[in-house]
C-alpha cells in the first residue's frame, strides 16, 4: 500500500519551507526503508486565487478531501499589487477554504501544538532551558469563535454592527478534552516534577461556553485517575506560561484562546520558525507550521523550515499511530532526532535563531537547513 500525501505549499514562504519538509521526508523514508509514500504537490491559496479566481481546482479539492491520507500544508495569505491582503467576495481571507475550511470539512477537531524548547534554540525567557519547556497545547479546532456564524449589518454602505457568535458544544468539548487526556497518557508528565497533568485553560469565571467546556473537562478527567486535572483562566495562564512553563504538561483550550496562547507558546520555544502543528480528527490529518505566509520574507531563501519539517514528522508519527505502521513512527523519530542534532550542533540555522549565544553564527539559507537535516537523518537512520 502507498500513502498518498497532498502537498499544499500555499503562499509566500510556504512555497519555500514545504519543499524542504518534503525533501527531508523523502530522504528519511528512504534511509529508514520506510513505507511507500506518494507526494502529490498541488496549488492552493491566495496567490492561486489572484491568478485564477478560485482558491484551488475542483480536482485538488477532491483529492485533498477524499483520496489523500494526509495533507502537508505550508501557509496561505497573499497580497495584491496595492499591498492589501487578498480577500474573497465574502470578506474571508483568500485561502480560507484551505486553512480554516479544511478543519471543518474534515472535522479536524483537535489542533495539537507541541511547545518544546530544543537544545540550541534561543528562548526569550531568561533562566529557562530545554529542561523547563516541554508541553503540548491542544486547541479545539471546529467551533468556538471560529464557527461561521458571523456577519456585519451594513446600512447605507456603513458597517454599523458586527457580530461573531462563539459556539461551544458538549460534543466538541468532550472530544478535544478526551484527545488531550490521551496525549497526556503517552507523555512523561510536566518538566518540573514528572506529574501527568491536563490544564483546562478557559474563562469560566465569566463565559457560559467556558463553563460548559470546564464541566465536560471535569467529567472526562474522572476517567483518567492518574492524570491530574488542573485549571487556569486564560488571562492568568499567559503569565504563568512565561513565569513557570515547567509546570505544564498538556493544555487544552477552546479555539480562539488556543490560537492566541499557541503564538505565545511558539515565542517561548524559539519563535514561529520552529513551531509545528497537527490538525487531527478521527479520519484525515492536516499538518502545518503555526506560522503564516510571511510575504515580506518570501523569495529570499531565509525562512526557517524547521517548523514545516517538524510538522512533517508529526504527520509520519500520526500515520504510524492511526495506521498502526511502525515504519512511519520510525521515520518520524529519525526526523525529530535529525532536527535536534542540527540545532544542538548550532552551526547551520536560519537568521531567526542567530541570537543570544548564537549571535555570532552566520545565518544559513532555508535550503541549507533542509540539506543539513536531511543529511543528519541519513546518518541517524544508518545508525
Ligand atoms: C493559526 C492561524 C489561523 C487561525 C489563521 C491563519 C486564520 O492563526 O492556525 O493559528 O486563526 O487559526
Ligand atoms: Mg494562530
Tally of contiguous helical segments = 11
Question: Which segments are poorly predicted (pLDDT under 50) over 5 or more consecutive residues?
Answer: none
Compute the average pLDDT: 97
Name the CATH superfamily classification of the largest domain: Isopropylmalate Dehydrogenase
N-to-C CA distance: 27 Å
CATH architecture of the largest domain: 3-Layer(aba) Sandwich
Whole-number tally of structural domains = 2
CATH class of the largest domain: Alpha Beta
CATH topology descriptor of the largest domain: Isopropylmalate Dehydrogenase
Instruction: Outline the biggest β-sheet.
Output: 10 strands, mixed
Structural class: alpha/beta
The small-molecule ligands in this entry are: 3-isopropylmalic acid, magnesium ion
Query: What Rg is obtained from the alpha carbons, in whole angstroms?
Result: 20 Å
Percent range of helical residues: 25-40%
Describe, in plain words, how this protein is organized in 3D:
- The chain is an alpha/beta fold.
- It has two domains: 1-116 and 269-383, Isopropylmalate Dehydrogenase; 124-268, Isopropylmalate Dehydrogenase, CATH 3.40.718.
- It is 40% helix and 18% strand.
- The chain is built from eleven helices and twelve strands.
- The strands form two sheets. A ten-stranded mixed β-sheet has the order 2-1-3-12-11-4-5-10-8-9, sandwiched between helices. Strands 6-7 form a two-stranded antiparallel ribbon.
- Helix 6 links the parallel strand 8 (197-202) and strand 9 (228-233).
- Helix 1 crosses helix 9.
- The longest helix is centred in the last third of the chain and has 20 residues, at 326-345.
- It is globular, with a radius of gyration of 20 Å.
- The relative contact order is 0.17.
- The structure holds 3-isopropylmalic acid and magnesium ion (MG).
- 3-isopropylmalic acid (IPM) binds at residues 99-100, 259, 290, 292.
Amino acid at each position: 500500500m502507498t500513502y498518498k500525501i497532498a502537498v499544499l505549499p500555499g503562499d509566500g514562504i510556504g512555497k519555500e519551507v514545504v519543499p524542504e519538509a518534503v525533501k527531508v521526508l523523502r530522504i528519511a523514508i528512504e534511509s529508514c526503508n520506510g513505507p511507500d509514500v506518494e507526494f502529490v504537490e498541488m496549488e492552493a491559496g491566495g496567490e492561486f486565487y489572484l491568478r485564477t479566481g478560485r482558491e484551488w481546482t475542483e480536482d485538488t479539492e477532491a483529492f485533498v478531501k477524499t483520496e489523500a491520507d494526509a495533507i502537508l500544508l505550508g501557509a496561505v495569505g497573499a497580497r495584491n499589487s496595492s499591498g492589501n491582503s487578498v480577500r474573497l467576495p465574502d470578506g474571508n481571507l483568500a485561502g480560507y477554504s484551505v486553512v480554516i475550511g479544511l478543519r471543518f470539512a474534515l472535522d479536524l477537531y483537535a489542533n495539537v501544538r507541541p511547545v518544546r524548547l530544543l537544545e540550541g534554540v534561543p528562548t526569550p525567557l531568561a533562566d529557562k532551558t530545554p529542561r523547563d519547556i516541554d508541553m503540548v497545547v491542544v486547541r479545539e479546532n471546529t467551533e468556538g469563535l471560529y464557527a461561521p456564524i458571523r456577519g456585519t449589518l451594513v446600512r447605507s454602505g456603513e458597517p454599523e454592527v458586527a457580530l461573531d457568535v462563539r459556539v461551544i458544544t458538549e460534543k466538541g468539548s468532550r472530544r478535544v478534552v478526551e484527545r488531550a487526556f490521551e496525549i497526556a497518557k503517552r507523555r512523561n508528565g510536566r518538566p518540573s516534577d514528572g506529574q501527568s497533568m491536563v490544564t483546562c485553560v478557559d474563562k469560566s469565571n465569566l463565559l457560559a461556553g467556558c463553563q460548559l467546556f470546564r464541566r465536560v473537562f471535569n467529567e472526562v478527567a474522572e476517567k483518567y485517575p492518574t492524570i491530574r486535572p488542573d485549571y487556569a483562566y486564560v488571562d492568568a495562564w499567559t503569565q504563568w506560561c512565561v513565569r513557570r512553563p515547567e509546570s505544564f504538561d498538556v493544555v487544552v483550550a477552546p479555539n480562539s484562546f488556543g490560537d492566541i496562547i499557541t503564538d505565545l507558546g511558539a515565542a517561548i520555544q524559539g519563535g514561529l520558525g520552529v513551531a509545528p502543528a497537527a490538525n487531527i480528527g478521527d479520519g484525515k490529518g492536516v499538518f502545518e507550521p503555526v506560522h503564516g505566509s510571511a510575504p515580506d520574507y518570501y523569495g529570499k531563501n531565509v525562512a526557517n523550515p524547521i517548523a514545516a519539517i517538524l510538522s512533517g514528522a508529526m504527520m509520519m508519527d500520526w500515520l504510524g499511530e492511526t495506521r498502526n505502521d511502525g515504519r512511519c513512527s520510525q521515520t518520524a523519530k529519525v526526523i525529530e532526532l535529525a532536527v535536534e542534532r542540527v540545532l544542538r550542533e548550532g552551526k547551520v540555522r536560519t537568521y531567526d535563531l542567530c541570537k543570544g549565544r548564537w549571535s555570532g553564527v552566520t545565518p544559513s539559507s532555508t535550503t541549507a537547513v533542509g540539506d543539513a537535516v536531511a543529511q543528519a537523518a541519513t546518518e541517524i537512520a544508518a545508525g
